[in-house]
Every structure is written in structure tokens, then in C-alpha cells.
Amino acid sequence: MEQIVQQIEQYKQEMQAFEAHTPDLVEAFRIKYLGTKGLVKTVMGEMKNVPVEQKKAFGQVLNEFKEFAEQRYALLKEHAGEQTDTGTSAKDITLPGDLFPVGTRHPLNLVKNQIISIFRRLGFAVAEGPEIEDDWHNFGAMNLPEDHPARDMQDTFYINQNPDWLLRTHTSSVQARVMENQKPPIRVICPGRVYRNETISARAHCFFHQVEGLYIDENVSFADLKQTLYFFVQEMFGQHVKVRFRPSYFPFTEPSAEMDISCQICGGEGCNICKHTGWVEILGSGMVHPKVLENFGIDSTKYTGFAFGMGVERITQLKYQVNDLRLYSQNDVRFLKQFTGVI
């Protein structure tokens, strides 16, 4: 036991003489003396070799030795911290901090917000509705007959039948709910996600986003519709963009038209996106069908209106030249980082 006590005194002298001016040296002290394989633990392991009658006295020596090592470690640690704070190597807290990566909104949200901003300047309010809809608001109120192909399981995700509940196939259902609860004048846009049972490819997806618009008032004409959409396109793509309307058919509008703009990717010269025509369809539109107005108790002899709907993915594709719709939902950071500088 006497030999061990002498060894402990030597260790104390070593600890007392140990100097540590940096956190690395303090850590070296801790490992050497207080670590799991340190000298303190090694010495305490000698307890098993001490005779029983001497264990109490030796235990007191060991406890004092351990406390001495811990106190010396705490003192060195405090001293090293003071050196770091006040020494010449101290960090200058007035310097700029570390740079953090800057995130951004998703490209679809960027474009959706821009669309909303444009139409708000024209006096359109924003209306939203449920993504799970009943058959009436999604189809019946919009003048879609029961045998219309859009009702087929090939196009629609049905959740329940008899009664029919489904994932909405367009945000026209929001227009229906607005007309159900509000009397003219009505001027709203309806942004949101919609679902259709389609094969996922570079040009199509089973879910996508729409912004639909509705304006009902007295003496609303097709000229009002055209000028509204002209304004939107020029604000979104620039004054240089060319526009054309083509006659079309939609059950909820009459007359109806699809609107094309000159391809923003090839400049109208022809490419895969515009199918080498120089034109790209961006939305459908038309005057609200009188039967749709009557479905909600709106006098079609007094009020008229127009409606339109566009896919946010298509607008984003043209604005930022995105060649694959699947990129929007794959969460590929390499793709999303390209929009960091977009406001």
C-alpha cells in the first residue's frame, strides 16, 4: 500500500505541473488522468489488492486523489477558456458569420403566387375548397352529363360510390361552391391541386395544380374575357408574346375557346414542346353556360360571366423551360436550387 501511495503522490505532482493553454491540451489531460483507461481509474483498480483492514484508509486516499484530479482538470479547463477569450487567437465576433444555404419557394408556388398577384390587380379574390368532393359540385353543377367520359374510372379517382365521393378533377368545384354561397357580382380565382387517373410521364401526372377564374356580373362579354387574358399573358411572359384563340367545347361554357401563346422555348420556330407548331396551349376559357348559372339560382337573363382555367405546371414549364413535369415532385435538390435567386 505504501508503494501505491507514493505513486499517487508522484501523479499529483505531475498533474500540478501539467500546463494546458489550449482546449486540445486540456482534453489530453482528461484522457491521460480521468479517461476510461486513465491513471486515476488504474490506481483505483488497486483496491482489490489491498488487505481488508487497510481498505478504509486506502479508500480515503483514492477519493482524495480522484477529487484532486477532477479539480485540476476543472481549473485547467477554465484557464484555457480564459486564454481563448482574451488571447490574440480569440475570434472576432464582429466579423460576418458563416454563410448558410438560402432556400426558396417551390417553382410551382412561385408561379402560382405570381398568377394570383396578377389577377388580384384586376380585382379577383382568392377562393379555395376541399380536395375531396361530391359528384354534384365536381360534375353535376358544371353541366357534365352522367355519361360524360370524365366521370369514368379511367379519369377520376373515386373514393366512394353511391353516393359518389372523389378526388376533385378540377378546381371548378370551388367555383360551384362560390356560386352556391355568393350572389353576383362574383370575381374569384381558384388555385389548388387536382387529381386525374393518368399515366405518369414527362408530359402528364396523376396530380397537378390549376388556377381557375370566374367573373359573373351584368353585361360581361367575351371581349372582357379576352382582354383579361391578354393582360395576364403579357404580365406573365412579357409584351412580346403572341396570342391566339381557337374554338373549343366545354360543357360548362358556351361559347368556348382554348388560348395558345407563342412557344417561349423555341421562340415560335418549332420544337418538341410545341410539337413543331410554334404554339402552346396554356388554358381553356369561355362564357359561363346559362344552365350552370341557373343551377345556383342566378338569373341567366340578367347576369353573364366568363370562366377560364390553366395548369400551373404548364405555365411554369414555359416560363422556366422545364422539360419534364416529373421534376416538380421528385424533390431533386439540383433542380430546386436553380430557383434560389427567383423572387
TrEMBL record:
The answer to whether the entry has keyword Protein biosynthesis is yes
What does this protein need as cofactor?
A: Mg(2+)
InterPro entries registered for this protein in UniProt: aa-tRNA-synth_II, aa-tRNA-synth_II/BPL/LPL, Phe-tRNA-synth_IIc_asu, Phe-tRNA_ligase_II_N, Phe_tRNA_ligase_alpha1_bac, Phenylalanyl-tRNA_Synthase, tRNA-bd_arm
| UniProt subcellular location | Cytoplasm
Q: Which CDD domains match?
A: PheRS_alpha_core
* One Pfam assignment: tRNA-synt_2d
Its Gene Ontology biological processes?
A: phenylalanyl-tRNA aminoacylation
The residues the record assigns to binding Mg(2+) are: 254
Q: Which GO terms describe its cellular component?
A: cytoplasm
Q: Which reaction does it catalyse?
A: tRNA(Phe) + L-phenylalanine + ATP = L-phenylalanyl-tRNA(Phe) + AMP + diphosphate + H(+)
Q: Which UniProt keywords apply?
A: Aminoacyl-tRNA synthetase, ATP-binding, Cytoplasm, Ligase, Magnesium, Metal-binding, Nucleotide-binding, Protein biosynthesis
GO MF annotations, alphabetized: ATP binding; magnesium ion binding; phenylalanine-tRNA ligase activity; tRNA binding
As to how many cofactors bind and how, the note says: Binds 2 magnesium ions per tetramer.
Could you say which EC number(s) this protein's record lists? 6.1.1.20
Residues forming the Aminoacyl-transfer RNA synthetases class-II family profile domain are 111-338
What is the annotated signal peptide range for this record? none
Give the family this protein belongs to, as stated in its UniProt record. Belongs to the class-II aminoacyl-tRNA synthetase family. Phe-tRNA synthetase alpha subunit type 1 subfamily.
Q: How does it assemble?
A: Tetramer of two alpha and two beta subunits.
- Which NCBIfam families would you find in this protein's record? pheS (TIGR00468)
Q: What is this protein called?
A: Phenylalanine--tRNA ligase alpha subunit
- The gene for this chain is pheS
